Amino acid sequence: MSTYEAIYAVVRQIPEGKVATYGQVAELANLPRQARLVGYALFRVDAASDVPWHRVINAKGEISESPFRQGGDYLQRSRLEQEGIEFNQEGKINLREYRWQPDQGLGSDGEKTRC
DNA sequence: ACATTGACCCGTT
DNA sequence: GAACGGGCCAATG
Q1: Which end of chain A is more exposed for a tag (fewer CB within 10 A), N or C?
Q2: Which residues of A spanning 23-62 put their CB closer than 7 angstroms to strand C?
Q3: Which residues contact A36 (CB under 8 A, 6 or more apart)?
Q4: Residue A45 near residue A51 (C-beta atoms within 8 A)
Q5: In this structure, is the CB of residue A2 within 7 Å of any atom belonging to strand C?
Q6: Nearest 5°: phi and psi at A25?
Q7: Strand locations in A1-115, DSSP E?
Q8: How far does Cα A41 stand from its chain's mean position?
């Protein structure tokens, strides 16, 4: 069980039609402030892996991927669109809508115990 | 074993 | 609101 394995495990928990940011995945993987490692891990992810790496995006809601990535840049976006995720003119995703929240069913009130 | 790299996030200016 | 820099860790050659 390597550190990357933990990251893959978290990414694998991302439901379909939802996206998670690197920082979020990092925290879920027990790696606080190590969003970088998440990105590095995904970079080293094997295409044959069942890791939905395409569901992981940066905090800006933009798709980040290296130009050397197999296929091209449109691949990830195409996959996300298949999941039902929409992009705006900027090619970004509405994190407020598609951000994966593990505790989605927190409470009907949503945010009440604030301050 | 050392140095380099690599798909980021956050706080400050 | 945008731009800039710093910090972190692991894998690779």
Answers
A1: C
A2: 33-37, 40, 44
A3: A22
A4: yes
A5: yes
A6: -60, -40
A7: 20-21, 56-57
A8: 12
Q: How confident is the model at residue A115 (pLDDT cuts 50, 70, 90)?
A: very low
Q: What does A14-28 look like in DSSP terms, one character per residue?
A: PPTT-BEEHHHHHHH
pLDDT tens per residue across span A81-97: 999 999 888 888 998 88
**Token pair in block for residue A112:** 């009440």
Decide: A11 and A42 in contact? Cβ < 8 Å: yes
Spell out where A4-108 has E strands.
20-21, 56-57
Residue A53 vs residues A42, A107, A115: alpha-carbon distances, Å: 6, 29, 36
Comparing A31-35, A57-61, A71-75, A103-107, the range with the smallest average pLDDT is A103-107
Model-level pTM?
Answer: 0.85
Does residue A42 contact residue A48 with C-beta atoms inside 8 Å? Answer: no
